Amino acid sequence: MGICMSCFKASSADVTPPSVDVTVKRQQMAEAAERRIKQQEIRGIKDPGKVKRLQQRRDELDKELAAGGPQPEPNLRWQVQ
Description:
about 80 residues
C-alpha cells in the first residue's frame, strides 16, 4: 500500500520555487545580456587585446588626419617609355 501512495504525492519538481523579486530578476537579465554582448564581440578573435589596440591606433590616425586639415594632392607624374 505504501508503494501506491508514493505515486500520488507531489514530487519536488512539481513544487514551484518562491517568486523572485522583479528588480532582482531585471538586474539578472541585464547582466546576462551584457555577458552575451561581450561574448559576441570577442567571438572568433584569438587576441581581443590586439584588436582593441589596432582599433585605438586607427582612431588616433583618423583624428590626426582630420586635425591636419585638407591634405595637399600629390603631384602626378606621367611616365612614357
